[in-house]
Specification:
The complex is a heterodimer of chains A (533) and B (235). A two-stranded antiparallel sheet of chain A has the order 1-2. In chain A, helix 4 crosses helix 11 (232-241) and helix 5 (87-96) packs antiparallel against helix 7. Chain A has helices at residues 2-13, 15-18, 29-62, 68-84, 87-96, 101-106, 111-145, 149-181, 187-218, 220-230, 232-241, 245-274, 295-308, 311-317, 319-333, 335-346, 350-365, 371-374, 382-387, 392-421, 426-453, 463-466, 470-495, 500-532; strands at 19-20, 25-26. In chain A, 43% of the residues are buried. Chain A is mostly helical. Chain A has 2 domains: 2-274, no CATH class; 295-532, no CATH class. With 235 residues, chain B is α/β, with parallel strands linked by helices. Chain B has a domain at 2-83 and 152-232: P-loop containing nucleotide triphosphate hydrolases (Rossmann fold, 3-Layer(aba) Sandwich). Chain B has helices at residues 40-48, 69-75, 91-101, 106-119, 135-148, 165-180, 192-198, 216-220, 225-232, and strands at 2-11, 14-24, 29-34, 55-60, 63-64, 76-79, 153-157, 184-188, 201-206, 209-215. Chain B has a 6-stranded mixed β-sheet with strand order 6-7-8-3-9-10, with helices on both faces. In chain B, strands 2-1-4-5 form a 4-stranded antiparallel β-sheet, with helices on one face. In chain B, strand 4 (55-60) and strand 5 form a beta hairpin. In chain B, helix 4 (106-119) packs antiparallel against helix 5. Classes of the chains: A mainly alpha (533), B alpha/beta (235). The interface between A and B is large, with 36 and 47 residues.
């Protein structure tokens, strides 16, 4: 029974690799192999490459002076941070909010089997990220210190231990989020807020990581001594990495016990959380508060309601909104520092600052991809839009408009902050606003197009259309392409001494042309897409 | 009101609906019965415009579903077999959303929401999110939303499933009233007693093919509808 549940869970997790939603049939073996290879290459090259570089530079300074344990403590910390971050809400939604919870609970399946099968997908995702740090870290260690049987054995144990730490943290924090959520009225907004605090903390440490790492390197001995005494578990964990088998097994055992304790906590409250119907406070109906709207406005309101109803949707597809607001404020506060450093690095001149402002706004907007999963998120409700007297283009245009509005407002704020902070002249300021706005419209239609290509309608948790599929990846990375082209073109035009106003003018026209082309594609394809669902 | 001429819908190599022809006049409550997988839902979805079909013609009040789907959708209301509504909306927000789509005036929608909300004892629940509704409450909400814009033709797939006896009784009265005002209703059901008492006409479909259709008397004669149905099904 557990095997069946696990198979179902794994199939859901990797469904896109095996099933072609567009053609409604299984992929060929070649296609499956191609997709898996692509995924592995992305993980190995992007994450693995980055962490190999970090672990080699860190290891070269720490391992030869006998601080190999500190090296493993640092790399282990990174692995845990990367693996646990993001898994918290994945645990919450895939464990407690799965659409098929009711169905499975109604079957003669022990609750612990349901929990275990769901936790397996959390474990696998966490392990994937944690190993992309730890495997390069272990290889780097072997390169620097050499391979011995003991260290190799400890490396294997450590790989398991790290995944267990990630799982314990994800489960525990996910459980806390679930417990808090059932008591909240506006749970999605509060959950999103808490998550943003997490993200802010994460980025804070991320940006401080280099300074922190340099500080540790410079004071490695004294920090090592302090940690040995005041943070013994870290020392124990690190010792496991350098070949102390007893330390490695002890750490593993500690986290097995901690995992069992967390598992018992989840098992005890799973039913009450998964079947919770929310806070029982009675709401009073007042129809007077609703105003009649046009068809387009009604569709747009529906999209906004969908967006704010899901913390997952807001966090994964609207992170750029928050980034734009924060960066806008930061740019104003740190304007002198930025002007000095940007001037030193890229050269002075309002055209350069304007180009950098457009690049920053564009990059942050690339993180907004609400339109991409929006059709998939209709799920079983799609019959409603199909049966109502609205055109397919009205449906998708409302989704595009939501993305444009949600991106445009913080972008204008951010652009104004940058215009003030960088003392941009009126002409440049107009181009910063115009190019950014056109970029937003263009990307919104592009994201919609990508989302229409392979909608996933039969999901059991909304994380699948929002996060765990190829369309979202293509949308985000695809949105960065115009940013790269823009800045590359600017550098070239600067080198060729082309007037910046002419370059920005050309980019504005090109942006408009591509926005129009993407709009045409969306308009042409939307009817077939909506009808085929 | 509704004309289906030679409707054929194919899934892969299986004919889900095979050359179906049906005419429904204004004022008629038309029942559609058949075994599971007979093609009832496929037919209903084809009429609504949710499913494209291979051949045949469907017209609603003289307008072709294929040529002018939007105009057709303005004249109809559809209640599916499983009322999957927007869970992130409250009941009242959902009803106002539907009212906006059909461009119903503020006064008219307020009056109807209050009226049907009270009839189905839903008014007190309208401020709550649909996610917290039971299956029956969702079904009631779907029914209220269908009646909001005074459609000419109402299509329903198993409308009595999940309804409590009182709500089922009210729905039957509303169906009758709708037809007395010149509207038409086409609905599928497995509850043959209900079909027998409620319908003016009935059609029986088997493996995608219409095997009998006509007034209730024509179809069942002196037997019960259940007996006729079982006989036609080859039991």
């Amino acid at each position: 029974m557990l095997k069946t549940l696990v198979k179902k869970q794994l199939y859901e997790l990797f469904r896109a690799y095996f099933f072609d939603a567009k053609k409604n049939k299984m992929r060929s073996k070649g296609q499956i192999a191609g997709f898996i290879t692509f995924f592995v290459v992305v993980i190995v090259i992007c994450l693995g490459g980055m962490f190999t570089a970090i672990s080699l530079s860190t290891g070269k300074q720490l391992i030869p002076v006998g601080l190999g344990w500190l090296y493993f403590a640092i790399m282990g910390g990174m692995a845990v941070a990367l693996g646990a971050f993001g898994s918290v809400f994945n645990t919450y939604s895939s464990l407690f909010l799965a659409k098929d919870n009711d169905l499975l609970l109604s079957m003669p399946i022990p609750v612990k089997y349901i929990i275990n099968s769901r936790l397996l997908s959390v474990y696998l995702l966490g392990a994937l990220y944690a190993w992309s740090v730890m495997i390069p870290a272990e290889i780097s260690y072997f390169i620097i210190a050499g391979v011995a049987f003991k260290t190799f054995l400890c490396a294997l144990i450590m790989l398991i231990t790290v995944t267990l730490i990630v799982l314990v943290l994800s489960c525990f924090l996910g459980w806390i989020v679930a417990k808090v959520s059932v008591k909240l009225k506006n749970k999605s907004i509060i959950t999103a807020f808490i998550s943003l605090v997490f993200i802010a903390a994460y980025y804070f440490f991320y940006f401080k990581a280099n300074a922190l790492l340099s500080y540790i390197m410079e004071n490695a001995n004294s920090i090592g001594q302090t940690l040995k005494v005041k943070a013994f578990p870290l020392y124990l964990f690190g010792q496991g990495g350098v070949g102390n088998v007893i330390a490695a097994i002890s750490t593993l055992c500690i986290f097995i016990v901690l995992f069992l304790a967390t598992w018992m906590l989840i098992e005890k409250s799973f039913l009450s959380i998964a079947t919770s119907s929310g806070p029982g406070k009675k709401l009073v109906y007042k129809n007077k508060e609703f105003k009649a709207q046009s068809v387009d406005a009604a569709l747009l309101s529906k999209e906004f309601a969908r967006f704010v109803s899901s913390a997952n949707y807001m966090l994964n597809c609207g992170l750029g909104i928050v980034m734009l607001l924060i960066v806008g404020i930061l740019v104003l506060i740190k304007s002198d520092y930025l002007l000095l450093h940007m001037g030193r690095t890229f050269g002075k001149g309002s055209d350069i600052f304007a180009a950098l402002a457009i690049l920053m706004i564009g990059s942050m907007n690339a993180m907004n991809d609400m339109a991409t999963p929006s059709i998939s998120l209709e799920g079983k409700n799609i019959w409603l839009l199909q049966s109502l007297p609205v055109t397919s283009f009205q449906i998708v245009r409302a989704k595009v408009r939501m993305q444009v509005i949600l991106s445009l407002i913080p972008s204008i704020f951010c652009a104004i902050c940058m215009i003030i902070a960088f003392h941009l002249p009126m002409g440049m300021a107009i181009f910063v606003l115009a190019v950014s706005a056109i970029f937003i419209v263009m990307v919104a239609y592009f994201d919609m197009w990508v989302g229409m290509e392979r909608p996933i309608m039969n999901w059991s948790t909304e994380v699948i259309p929002i996060k765990q599929n190829l369309s979202v990846l293509v949308a985000i990375f695809g949105s960065w392409v115009p940013c790269v082209i823009f800045i590359g073109g600017f550098a070239l035009s600067h080198f060729l001494k082309v007037n910046a106003y002419i370059y920005f003018g050309v980019m504005t026209v090109l942006g408009l042309i591509f926005a129009y082309i993407f709009r045409l594609i969306v308009k042409k394809k939307c009817q077939k897409c909506i009808e085929s669902l | 009101m509704l004309k289906i001429e030679g409707l054929t819908k194919i899934y892969g190599d299986k004919k889900a609906v095979d050359n179906l022809t049906l005419h429904i006049q204004p004022g008629e409550v038309y029942g559609f019965i058949g075994h599971n997988g007979a093609g009832k839902t496929t037919t209903l979805k084809s009429i609504v415009g949710i499913l494209k079909f291979e051949s045949g013609q469907i017209t609603i009040d003289g307008t072709s579903v294929v040529e002018d789907p939007l105009e057709c959708k303005k004249k109809i209301a559809y209640i599916p077999d499983n009322p999957d509504l927007y869970e992130y909306m409250s009941g009242s927000k959902y009803l106002n959303f539907v009212a906006d789509i059909f461009q119903i005036s503020k006064e008219e929608r307020d009056e109807k929401i209050q009226k049907y909300g009270d009839i189905f004892e839903m008014t007190d629940h309208l401020a709550e999110p649909i996610a917290s509704y039971s299956h029956g409450m969702r079904q009631k909400l779907a029914i209220i939303s269908a009646w909001l814009h005074a459609p000419k033709l109402i299509l329903m797939d198993e409308p009595f499933v999940g309804l409590d006896p009182k709500a089922a009784h009210l729905l039957k009265e509303m169906m009758r009233e709708h037809c007395e005002k010149g509207g038409a209703i086409f609905f599928s059901t497995h509850v043959l007693e209900v079909a027998e008492k409620l319908c003016d006409k009935v059609a029986i479909i088997k493996n995608g093919q219409l095997i009998k259709a006509g007034t209730m008397e024509e179809v069942k004669g002196d037997d019960s509808l259940e007996e006729v149905f079982l006989e036609l099904e080859g039991e």
